[in-house]
Amino acid sequence: MANKSRNKNASEKSKTDGDDVSLYSAENIQHNMRTLYYSRTFLSIVGGIVAGILGLTGVSGFLFYFVIMMATSAAVALKAGFKIGMYFDSLNRVTLDGLTAGLMSFVLFWTLAYDIVHIF
Amino acid sequence: MAVDLVVGLLGIAALGHAAFSTVQYRNILKVTEEAFLWPPFYVIIEICISLVLCFWAALRVPGQFLPVLPDLEEDRLAQLTENVDFMTFNHRGRIFPLKIDEGLNLND
After folding, report:
1. Nearest Cα to B62, choosing from A60, A68, A41, A92?
2. Residue A53: its chain B contacts at CB < 8 A?
3. How far is A45 from chain B (nearest CA, A)?
4. Spatial separation of the C-alpha atoms in residues B57 and A38, rounded to whole Å
5. How far is CA A30 from CA A89, A112, B46, B65, B67, in A?
């Protein structure tokens, strides 16, 4: 009698509504989150250098950062074929995760590029 | 993978070249004593090109997304139990109808 058990990677992560238990492969979720984090960090750095070259100061620089992050979210959604449910467990992860960490990198490279291009 | 890395490096190189061009532009502005507002047009074009290249590399280099849901058709792993000899099926539970049977319509 064949017992079809779950994929080896699967570990239980059930949703809170009682009847519907969804299993997600935690290892794959972690892999996807790591991929997303690498993409975001790299694009934050690139965005910082661009903001420095363009000579943005003050609020406009931070606005530029959020524009870059929205573009990243759109690009990631495009990469996932807009089937976000198949690769992530919630849409918030795609849009909001890693935003603050990227902000630090952005500001660092923004000030670096601005100093190199405009001051020295 | 290697192509995407090269594309990313090209993007960063274009960015560096744009930075260098902007520095030269600022030196010219110092001579003519004008204020700096925006970098010149060709530098902005170069920045846009390098942004496109860097976006491409940033999405491709870290790798593909893996499917998360466990029941997809292409990733099934069926495990058979080894101790079937120790399983009894001739018990009182055989009286209960299977959930599948309740959906069957036997009155064709």
Report:
1. A41
2. 15, 18-19, 22, 39, 43, 47
3. 10
4. 11
5. 11, 32, 36, 10, 11
CA A6, chain centre distance (Å): 29
Contacts of A45 (CB under 8 A, 6+ apart): A105, A106, A109
DSSP-derived letter for residue A24 is B
Q: Under the phi-then-psi rule, with left for phi > 0, alpha for psi from -120 to 50, and beta for the rest, what region is A12?
A: beta
Chain B residues closer than 8 Å to A39 by CB: 58-59, 62
Mutation target for A interface from B25, B38, B65: give the one with most A CBs within 10 A: B65
ipTM surpasses 0.90: no
Instruction: Flag if A71 and B55 touch (Cβ within 8 Å).
Output: yes
A23 and A13 Cβ atoms separated by less than 8 Å: yes
CB atoms within 10 A of CB B77: 12
pTM, entire model: 0.72
Render pLDDT for A46-90 as a digit per residue (tens, 0 to 9): 999 999 999 998 999 999 999 999 899 888 888 888 777 777 777
Write the pLDDT tens digit of every residue in B13-51.
999 999 999 999 999 988 888 788 888 999 999 999 999
C-alpha separations of A23 from A15, A37, B36 in Å: 9, 23, 57
Distance of CA B51 to the CA centre of its chain: 18
With beta carbons under 8 A apart, name residues in chain B contacting A43.
54-55, 58
